[in-house]
Write a structure and sequence with these properties.
By secondary structure, the protein is of the alpha+beta class. It has helices at about 25-40, 110-115, 115-135, 145-165, 170-190, 195-200, 215-230, 235-240, and strands at about 1-5, 10-20, 45, 50-55, 55-60, 65, 70-75, 85-95, 95-105, 200-205, 240-245.
């Protein structure tokens, strides 16, 4: 679940995922500082209480305030902040892990912020929360590898057919474009492609909810690595799983 509000130049953002276990504030603090480097592919680094991109201080936090089930950092500056103020908070509450930003003033103009920084924040934050939540308990029975490959074959055939109908001659760019749009839309809207429907399986986030658009994009980009290594690297990176599902099952939020 994601929420975004902008009032008088101040941004309020919330991302949350279902979590069956309470997580301590100390663990939430340590996990975020550890994950931010991995989830940005090494682009963002933590130095003290600040986040850096190369030599540039992206965001500067004040000392973390840790409570039993939450951690909170005041936002004090950095090139991504127009002015000091606001806070970033992660907490375990009422069966959910919630990450929220309140009172933050982004330096980027609102349209540019909404197109660049905001979606990146949502993707990284959601993936972090799902990593903290973990894969246990599993969201369902994992689909067999043979069924997953059969579903993929159906989807490849469908995308190739669509590309042939749209274009007068085979076109790799068109095929890749149709394949990308088809998979991202299918996973994000219902969790299943035509192949998934035929084979009775569904893609879900590890908490059982639908994958976000960002998760679906990460999963698609990493899919070739999964094929090459014969292991679900794409699901590990995107915090997703492929589960057995009936045609009438719908993922919960």
């Amino acid at each position: 679940m994601t929420v975004h509000r902008l009032t008088d130049g101040q941004v309020s953002i919330e991302d949350s995922v279902a979590s069956p276990r309470a997580t301590t504030g100390g663990r939430l603090r340590d996990a975020y500082m550890r994950d931010i480097h991995a989830l940005t592919l090494g682009l963002v680094r933590v130095r003290g209480d600040s986040l850096y991109v190369g030599p540039l201080e992206l965001l500067r936090f004040g000392p973390a305030k840790v409570t039993r089930f939450a951690v909170e950092w005041p936002i004090e500056g950095g090139i991504a902040a127009c002015a000091p103020g606001g806070r970033f908070r992660i907490e375990a509450a009422r069966g959910r892990l919630v990450a929220s930003v309140d009172g933050y003033r982004p330096r980027l103009p609102r349209p540019l912020y909404a197109l660049t920084q905001l979606p990146i924040h949502h993707v990284v934050t959601r993936l972090h929360l799902l990593r903290v939540r973990g894969r246990e308990p599993a969201p369902g029975v994992t689909a067999a590898s043979s069924d997953r490959f059969s579903a993929a074959a159906v989807d490849v055939a469908l995308c190739a057919t669509l590309a042939g109908l749209v274009g007068k001659r085979p076109n790799l760019k068109m095929l890749l474009g149709i394949t990308a749009a088809y998979h991202v839309a299918s996973w994000s809207i219902s969790g299943r492609t035509l192949g998934g429907l035929v084979m009775g399986q569904r893609v879900v986030a590890v908490d059982g909810s639908l994958p976000s658009v960002g998760q679906s994009v990460v999963r698609l980009l990493a899919l070739p690595i999964g094929w090459l290594t014969r292991r679900p690297v794409h699901d590990e990176l995107a915090a997703t799983n492929v589960i057995v599902a009936s045609p009438y099952d719908f993922p919960h939020g």
